[in-house]
Amino acid sequence: MTNPSPYRSLPTERRLALVLHAIKTGREARTLYTQRILSRGGGFRAVTLNSWPAEKLAAEIVRLKAEQPQDELDLLHLLYVQLEPAIQIDFLDTARVAHERGVMAESLQPPFADEAAVRLAADKVIEQHGADGARYLHTLARYSAAGWPGIEAVVEKLSA
Q1: 20: confidence class by pLDDT, cuts 50, 70, 90
Q2: Average pLDDT over the chain, rounded to whole?
């Protein structure tokens, strides 16, 4: 069995909440997700999907698993940086990486910390946040491994 992406490992209700938030807070997200459904075929028309309330559209996106890999990354960023930054804040604080409420400066270049700091930060995130912390670490390993030396070994150990 393949390992699901960190996004797909979220409970359905949480994925639904993320997609719904994205749709409600950005018109471009509604358009993007409508296009995702239309591209799959199945008889939907744009005018029909555009008339749906955000809740119904989000439910259909999640039901069809219409999120593409870039959508998954964007939704995980929404989760860990905007909606629930506590895990990222704990990780960055422990790794001694400069940030403002979990948001790292665009000017920072990878690697953001050394391997020892990454291991220490990963231990703290697991201790403080359990399974959600592990999912966060899997997210870093999948999408930003170059920035966090040793993160892949940490995640491998968690998966064993």
Answers
A1: very high
A2: 95
In a domain, 7, yes or no: no
pLDDT tens, position by position, 39-96: 988 788 999 999 999 999 999 999 999 999 999 999 999 999 999 999 999 999 999 9
Q: What is the DSSP string of 19-49?
A: HHHHHHH-HHHHHHHHHHHHHT-SS--HHHH
**Same domain? 103 vs 153:** yes
Q: Which two tokens stand for residue 153?
A: 């070994």
Peptide bond into 4 cis (omega under 30): no
- Quote the CA–CA distance of 31 and 68 in Å, as a whole number: 14
In-domain check, residue 23: yes
The DSSP result for 117-134, as a single string, is HHHHHHHHHHHHHHHHHH
Count of structural domains, the chain: 2
What is the C-alpha separation between 124 and 95, in angstroms, rounded?
Answer: 10
Last-in-domain residue among 68, 93, 113: 68
Q: Is the pTM of this model over 0.90?
A: yes
Q: Encoding tokens for residue 78?
A: 């929404």
Q: Is residue 41 part of a domain?
A: yes
